[in-house]
């Protein structure tokens, strides 16, 4: 009986497979290469009646402009019948590259059938053929996206601004909807976006013709390296209403709505290297116009009193990228880690405000201390010259407290006065000490000193053994050294937990400083691709290299996106692990 059931089941499966083998469900497109601003027609066709429950793909990286539209076809030729059912869509790509359109599915005879996948090559936006009757051509001639750059030839570290404006000739077209399909990339620049809260329509001209425009995006950029840098294009998809020359029953103009992609195109920035002539030895990349001060709130300190010393830079320029000079103090002054503060506002003209480190100092002994002058240098791009500023020496007076070396004055001599032969000073109390000499030999101290070497021998053996094991533990020593190095470079970032932007700036700076020390190259002046190439040349594992580059990119992105303190701690531990791994491999 079981054998018979098995035969029935196998027969059913064979019949089902035979039926499905005769069904064709395929996807097809009208072209496999399109521009970013072009449309694409895709059909999903099945050649058997009775199919149902069609499910389209998710169309990832595409926008569905129309569909699904359903059509069927039935014919009979020489007694042979044919049938097809199609589901059609009009779609448009949202990004460039080789994009995949996933499978659709449909049910036939209680079985689910999937279509084939398709690959489409999407290129840059293509020029629209000149045809005054083509609504897309009319839209292309009357809608423009422009990137206004304040300075195409800045110095390294000099702020520039980019303002993105959308120009529309409202007499020819109207804008119904907009959607940003590609954000501009600022590779080689430090950048900060300025919020555009409201789209305010303003009057302007484009190529001599009156247009209205709105500002859609504003960014402040600071080039990090010299040479030709490229700003990748910004692209916006627009639904434009183009008049067709007819009016409806109520006299209103009739429009043909078309989707059209406008782009700024690539923008080239030629960045000048800072001059070598006159460059101070202590210059560390500050570019702008600054004032520098070092101020102490107290110079005379009472017992257990502290003084606050503030090192401050104030002005306009690349403030967020400046490393403040360090405070150097003489022995005898205890110095605590400084509190770092930033009061900076960013506008299209750049960053303006102040940054400062505030140190707390405590004298350990009484005396006078001189804190030597501190120097700060910067490059002024308007004057095209360097300036070197310095603070005066600070003198700290601590008249109270312990003497240096904890020296105590033991002169307790009493004064004696003689008048007319009489002795005015008579000692009335005496202190007797025993004249009997205590023999050291045979005393308790003697036996303690005698046994001490025997007690120290096993301790010395154990300590020596532990030190030898630690010295032979090559991997352990490397790990401890690498962990210590990672903590050193990441110490500043750790102090900024909870302060998103300051934390990720410090984290990114720590990663660059580590590479600078380990590879002896200025990594802040080269691209991430070049850093990756250098690491691979140093035989760093590809996984470690990719992890490092990924962390650099994530840090740059995280400065402008919401982030929790937990995420910052995770990124800190991630950076610590990557630096430690890199150091062991190097």
Query: How does CATH name the architecture of the largest domain?
Result: Sandwich
CATH topology of the largest domain: Immunoglobulin-like
C-alpha end-to-end distance: 72 Å
CATH class assignment of the largest domain: Mainly Beta
Question: How many separate structural domains?
Answer: 4
Beta-strand residue fraction = 35-45%
Description of the molecule:
The protein has 8 helices and 31 strands. With 586 residues, the protein is of the alpha+beta class. The protein is 25% helix and 38% strand. It has helices at residues 2-21, 135-142, 444-472, 474-494, 500-519, 528-537, 542-558, 565-585; strands at residues 25-29, 33-35, 40-46, 52-55, 62-77, 80-93, 97-101, 105-108, 111-114, 118-123, 143-149, 160-168, 174-182, 189-194, 202-206, 209-223, 227-231, 235-247, 253-263, 267-271, 288-296, 307-317, 333-335, 339-347, 350-363, 367-371, 375-380, 385-390, 394-398, 418-419, 422-423. Helix 5 runs antiparallel to helix 7 (542-558). Strands 11, 12, 14, 15 and 16 form a 5-stranded antiparallel sheet that branches. Strands 21, 22, 23, 24 and 25 form a 5-stranded antiparallel sheet that branches.
